[in-house]
Amino acid sequence: MRTTISVIKADVGSIGGHTMPSARMLDSVRHDVADAIDQGLIVDGFVCHTGDDICMIMSHRRGKGDADIHRFAWDAFLGATAIAKTYGLYGAGQDLLVDAPSGNLRGAGPGVAELEFDLLEAKHRQAESFMVLAADKCGPGAYNLPLFLAFADPMYCAGLMLPQMIKGFRFRIIDMDNVAGDSIIELDAPEDAYHIAALLRDNERFGIDAIISRGFGEQAAAVSAQRLHSIAGKYTGKDDPVALIRNQGIFPAPEELLSPFVKAHYVGGDARGSHVMPLMPVAVNTAVTGAYCLPIVSCLGFSMEGSGHFTDAHTDFFANPAWDEVRRRAQQKAIEMRSQGWSGAAMLPYSELEYGGFRDTVGGLVKRFQIEAGGGGGPEPTPTTVHVRQS
Ligand code: 13P
Ligand code: MG
Ligand code: MG
Fold this sequence. Notes:
Blueprint: E1 2-10, H1 23-38, E2 44-50, E3 53-60, H2 67-86, E4 111-118, E5 128-136, H3 144-152, E6 169-175, E7 184-189, H4 193-200, E8 206-213, E9 219-223, H5 228-232, E10 242-247, H6 254-258, E11 266-269, E12 275-278, E13 280-281, E14 296-304, E15 315-316, H7 322-338, H8 358-367
Parallel strand pairs: 13-14
Antiparallel strand pairs: 1-3, 1-4, 2-3, 5-10, 5-14, 6-7, 6-8, 8-9, 9-10, 11-12, 14-15
The structure holds 1,3-dihydroxyacetonephosphate (13P) and magnesium ion (MG) (2 copies).
């Protein structure tokens, strides 16, 4: 049966600063999800949080981008926003960027990742298992490196050498600077691996939108790659992307998918969305309360039975003690980077800094520069002619 998994997450308010949503907010969204199951809108649903972002994971039969599903998620976030406002929580409704979304929530603020497939019908897919990655205090391309390594590099995923994966994977990559619409290029690994890397190295501009098995034509992964500040025209918090990944069989196994996260690689985000800090894997429902916040990522695993139910039980991958060592390394890397303060690589370049904050400070100062007498000609510097990123 054609089945869709929709993962929709948003920051609509948090306690004591940008740490985590309140229990009342989560209860409200869980209550809405239970109602939606009763009314038959969705088959199953699960609600959790990563840092200050509430994540709704839902299965249904309505396909990707369905207006009713997206409106339902929006209304659930509005309900949680009202609670956040009542209790004076920080950033109430932060990620709800438009007054009313026109059907699809992509571009309206919440992160959306969706996969649609024939559930348990294909010979090559007799069990359906999937993982949900949710990151907080992170730029949109936080998954670029780990997903490239998992789906295109046998050093991380030896399974790529198996017959069911040896044809490789197709990467759909989105240019997030193009706000006219979803601007996509499709490139095939392994042949195009260097071209894929050439794009994915720029985590702020290019992001993985989807990954598809070339051997079977089945979609393996969907990522909510978009740039909130490009869409909103102003800084509205970090993108905090979610990813939905099917695993096992014709796709990489969980350990192959997660092995690149051992790096705790540096990503854009962290405090005021303007720093470069390591991505720390954490258990689901972790608050952001560490020193200098730290970008975090959680990972849940689910299995799905024939009717589309999946919440009977779940696995919290990063809760395993094996990840304690990675967390320590991430914290060490963070301390090293923080010892550099505001200098150079420790903060994002001018073009990626928090809109309306650091940029205003620098822009105001740039206007005060003056060419000294006898110092030569040339155009007057403006904020946009200083420090523009070379693309
Ligand atoms: P959020 O997007 O998680 O609200 O974080 C934004 C920020 O600026 C953190 O300092
Ligand atoms: Mg927030
Ligand atoms: Mg957040």
